Amino acid sequence: MKINFKLLFICIAIPLFTGILATLLTQTGMETTANLNKPPLSPPALLFPIVWTILYTLMGIASYLVIVSEFGREDIRNAITVYAAQLIVNFFWSLIFFGLQWYLAASLLIIVLWGLIFLTIRKFLPFSKPAAYLLLPYLAWVTFATYLTFGIWILN
User: What residue spans define the domains of the chain?
Assistant: First the structure.
């Protein structure tokens, strides 16, 4: 299979840009969050941009693998629509958690995000097992982030 590097770059750039935009829009809230009570096992703040950069890159590669698969266009469109929905919810979670500091709403929204990631994995699986597997670290991280989000809501 020949790699379409332009398409691969675009697929990786979309989630990375989404994460960068969310960070830029919520920078002040992130500073405020740093001073909140946090649950046990909370990682240092330095870890978050590293992990998210890796996860966004994996998401982009996974979406590329689905887009270039040999399945019908309509099937691919349906899978990418679910992928796009989880990326949008991911973006708004950041705005609600960091920007607005509505921790209960963020706690509820992250459950929706988790479900959409799980559904994205299921949708990607028929097209490309590697694409589905690339999203497993994302699901694991959001599972951990769910614990952290609820913990911050409860402790603050």
Answer: 5-155
Token pair of 38 as six digits: 């946090």
Q: Which fold has domain 5-155?
A: Ferritin (1.20.1260)
Per the structure block, which two tokens stand in for 39? 């649950």
Predicted confidence (pLDDT) per residue in 94-140, tens digit: 999 999 999 999 999 999 999 999 999 999 999 999 999 999 999 99
Q: What one-letter code names the amino acid at 129?
A: K
Q: 118: which residues sit within 8 A by CB, 6+ positions away?
A: 139
Q: Which residue has the tokens 């840009």?
A: 17
- Predicted TM-score (pTM) above 0.90: yes
Neighbouring C-alpha atoms within 13 Å toward the C-beta of 112: 15
